[in-house]
Amino acid sequence: MSALADVLARARAEDRSALIGYLPVGYPDVSTSIDAMTAMVAGGADVIEVGVPYSDPGMDGPDIQAAVDPAVKAGIGLRDVFAAVSAVRAAGAVPVVMSYWNPLEKYGVGRFAADLAAAGGAGAITPDLIPEEAAQWIAATDVHDLDRVFLLAPSSTDARILSTVAASRGFVYAASTMGVTGVRAAVSDAATNLVSRIRALAPEIAVCVGLGVSNADQAAEVAAFSDGVIVGSAFVRCLLDSPDAAGAKAAGTLAAELAEGVRRR
Amino acid sequence: MTTSPDSFSYPDSTGHFGPYGGRFVPEALVAALDEIEAEFTKAQSDPAFAAELSRLLRDYGGRPSPLSDAERFSEHAGGARVLLKREDLNHTGSHKINNVLGQALLTKRLGKSRIIAETGAGQHGVATATAAALFGLSCTVYMGEEDTRRQALNVARMKLLGAEVVPVTTGSQTLKDAINEAFRDWVANVEDTHYLFGTAAGPHPIPLMVREFHRVIGQEARAQVLERVGRLPDVVAACVGGGSNAIGIFYDFIPDAGVRLVGLEAAGDGVETGRHAATITGGSPGVLHGARSYLLQDENGQTIESHSISAGLDYPGVGPEHSWLHDTGRAEYRPITDAQAMAAFALLCKTEGIIPAIESSHALAGALDLGKELGPDAVILVNLSGRGDKDVETASTYFGLAAGDLESGDPALGDPA
User: Fold this and answer.
1) Do B176 and A56 touch (CB under 8 A)?
2) Does B250 touch chain A (CB under 8 A)?
């Protein structure tokens, strides 16, 4: 069984998309970031991507960099991440870790999988790990019954879509634009094209779409063609604008708006 | 216990050097890397590509670069015979032009109109801007803001050559952050843009491609030493930041089991102080900038900022092939402090009339030690990878030379006579 596939299937049964919200652990501090995550759950997020701060976030734009940088400097590590995972789980949503590969490799791939499973995490999204390099991760997630989410991009060939889907568990992450994370004014056409290619080649797997969504209208637009709408930078902005309890509350308010968006039909 | 890697079998077909290398990149870049690999493979077996590249290297780059006997310098190296491979005499003043001309030709074959690059000391940025001007490509160079201050002369050179220079203000504001920023640009603009990576690191096939474009250094030097000395050198010494000049001069000597390959890493204030850039000596295996290799990291897997007086070596990673050469024992890697490098820098200036790059001065310092260890019968080939014009200000500050204070015998510089 897959915790992510289950929550996405439940959303589909309600004729809606799931809302997946990202926040890095440790900005502005561990407890405020966890408060923001639980506020997002209360606001209606189905899944929380619990972000591992990393010193070289090559896929992230300025918003996420700005939040992650101080968390790295504060020495936030996987122990804090597991605490956030448990808190999200207790709040009633499905926690999935989002991490660049090196912090996981340094911690030890098998040890990470075991500790993540113990903390109640569903699995992990690994934006700079492609299936070809993931043998150890695939073995560890099989042992601990964890989901593993790989990314697909508009430039992915059909052959890569098939091999990536085959390696994935839970869902595949469709990076809807070519580029780094960040709030965008318009949802790219590339997203709909990519999702329909994935659907045609691999109808069995759930497809969630990320990169660029910041408001309910965009969420509704993406929800119309995906199983899950992934929102990151817009939540991070809430805490950048107000790095305190008010920012955490604002993240919850934004989640409620977006949760309405993913329910429009 | 020393195993000699078969010289021509790495990387394997998936881009690995043993456990190192590979591709740790966002999916969005895989298609571009596949495209580069396919075009590079095609170009390698295309005689027209080889002919065009060697014409450019000769008529534009100034190859072959000479081999200089450093006779007076050798007196300070235990009497060992030190030979300098003069990459400093290439157009743009360093070995970097070899790779840049190769990749610029490849960019044309890929049908792309824009190149981007990262730079630390500015040598690779200048070389890339040069090739962009020559080939009529638009060019953006990412450079850490701290480095733009340390290497202001090279910033001006890049701008004169028509490149846009973007100061990077994130993270440590040095080379590693410039690479992150260049990757972000590339992910967003991969359709018309080639990322002209400056060292033998990064995701497959970059380490392979950069090595192949720099192999000419070792090919020339090996023949030149054989002709000059009548035998192979005992040691080949090169500085290692990312490791492009080192892999270029090492590679064709790998099958010569009697030749020691020695990489000199930047030890900054000393490896024991934690303020250094000696990745293999003081680091551990992990993943950074698209490949698995040794890197400087903390217990959370966060990259540790490196420190070196040399902007070109101030990098917390290293090319994956060096990690493999280290683990297999085929090459050895030694730390050289700022102080050792600067003493060697001053010595070469005064004994040979050559102002070396501070990067290359690490290799010179290594040669001084190796010569003393091996004695007067030894032949040591040093890759003098770049010239030091760009470093004059750093050296002036380091040696405390006020204007007009440069007469010979200045005690700060050490009098070799």
Assistant:
1) yes
2) no
CB B88 within 8 A of CB B385: yes
Q: Chain B contact for A58, CB < 8 A?
A: yes
Mean pLDDT, range A40-46, rounded to an integer: 98
Residue pLDDT, tens place only, A193-249: 999 999 999 999 999 998 788 999 999 999 999 999 999 999 999 999 999 999 999
Q: HEC string of A91-125?
A: HCCEEEEECCHHHHHHHCHHHHHHHHHHHCCCEEE
Which of A65, A102, A151 lies at the smallest CB-CB distance from B27? A151
Q: ipTM score here? A: 0.95
Asked if B202 and B291 touch (Cβ cutoff 8 Å), the reply is yes
pLDDT surpasses 70 at A183: no
Which has the closest alpha carbon to A236: A13, A16, A49?
A49
- For CA atoms B15, B19, B25, B26, give the dihedral sign: positive
Q: Provide, as residue numbers in chain B, all residues whose Cβ is less than 8 Å from the Cβ of A130.
A: 23-25, 27, 30
Q: What is the pLDDT of residue A185?
A: 61
Q: How many domains does chain A have?
A: 1
| Model pLDDT for residues A129-173, shown as the tens digit of each residue | 999 999 999 999 999 999 999 999 999 999 999 999 999 999 999
* Res. B203 pLDDT band, cuts 50 70 90: very high
A13 touches chain B (CB under 8 A): no
- pLDDT at residue B402 is higher than 80: no
Catalytic residue among B112, B146, B385, B390: B385
For position A136, which CATH number holds?
3.20.20.70
pTM: 0.95
Interval B98-123 mean pLDDT: 95
Nearest by CB: A128 against B26, B188, B300: B26
Q: State the average pLDDT for chain A.
A: 95
Residue A176 pLDDT level (bands cut at 50, 70, 90): confident
State how far residue A129 is from chain B, nearest Cα, in angstroms: 5
**H runs (alpha helix) in B240-357:** 244-250, 279-282, 320-328, 338-352
Residue of B nearest to A173 (CA): B27
The string of DSSP codes covering B83-148 is EEEEGGGSGGGBTHHHHHHHHHHHHHHHT--EEEEEESSSHHHHHHHHHHHHHT-EEEEEEEHHHH
Burial B49-75 (b: 16+ CB within 10 A, else e): beeebeebbeeebebbbebbebebbbe
Listed in sequence order, the residues at least 6 apart from A160 whose beta carbon sits closer than 8 Å to its beta carbon are A152, B27, B30, B31
Alpha carbon distances (Å) from A81 to A20, A24, A56, A147, B23: 17, 9, 18, 17, 26
The answer on pLDDT for A83 being more than 80 is yes
- Residue B264 gets which letter from DSSP? E
Residue B1's pLDDT is 35
The answer to whether residue A180 neighbours chain B at the CB level (below 8 Å) is yes
Would you call B301 and A107 a contact, using CB atoms and an 8 Å cutoff? yes
Yes or no, beta carbons of A55 and B302 under 8 Å apart: yes
Q: Which domain holds residue A247?
A: 3-263
Q: Is the pLDDT of residue B3 over 50?
A: no
Closest to A153 (Cβ–Cβ): which among B22, B27, B171?
Answer: B27
- Residue A8 C-alpha, separation from nearest chain B C-alpha, in angstroms: 23
